[in-house]
Amino acid sequence: MKVLIPVDGSASADRAVEYVIASTAWLNEVPQVFLLNVQWKLASGNVKLFINQETINDYYREQGLAALAVARKKLDAAGLAYTYHISIGMPAEAIVQYAQEQQVDQITMGAHGQDALSALLLGSVVSKVLHLAIMPVLLVK
């Protein structure tokens, strides 16, 4: 079974990781775990006049690894193998695209993301993933 866990550094995402770890006790097979962090694309255009692409990529990598750190520690402590990836773009679309590319059987994600205000303004990432995904989505509270 392939499971994708989108991680944004929130407590809710950490609970999704903990759920997957706990579920290994009753699953018939150890799941293949994919961690994904999606970084919002920085404004383009004039920003690139002042900051080079290498600096922007370093920023994405730094922020993504920071958001993935707790999840990776939890999976390492549990002895559960995983693959991690950092994407750039719109979170819901990037999550579903990565899930399809990796042919995951399930997306397990926290019911609430890191930024409640942006969820109200931009629309819930969770709602969009539920709408776009063709595979089951398990929400962990």
Distance, first to last CA: 22 Å
Overall pLDDT score: 90
Domain count: 1
Structural class: alpha/beta
Q: Any idea what the CATH superfamily is called?
A: HUPs
The CATH architecture comes to 3-Layer(aba) Sandwich
Strand content: 15-25%
Quick tags:
Rossmann fold; 141 residues; 6 helices; five-stranded parallel β-sheet; 5 strands; single chain; alpha/beta
Report what the structure shows.
α1 links the parallel β1 and β2. Strands 3-2-1-4-5 form a 5-stranded parallel β-sheet, sandwiched between helices. The two termini are 22 Å apart. With 141 residues, it is α/β, with parallel strands linked by helices. It is 49% helix and 21% strand. It is built from 6 helices and 5 strands, in the order βαβααβαβααβ. The model has no long low-confidence stretch (mean pLDDT 90). The protein has one domain: 3-Layer(aba) Sandwich (Rossmann fold), CATH 3.40.50.620.
Question: How would you briefly describe this protein structure?
Answer:
The chain has 141 residues and is of the alpha/beta class. Helices cover 49% and strands 21% of the residues. Strands 3-2-1-4-5 form a five-stranded parallel sheet, with helices on both faces.
Strands, helices and their partners?
Elements: E1 2-6, H1 11-23, E2 32-39, H2 47-50, H3 53-78, E3 82-88, H4 91-101, E4 106-110, H5 116-122, H6 125-132, E5 137-140
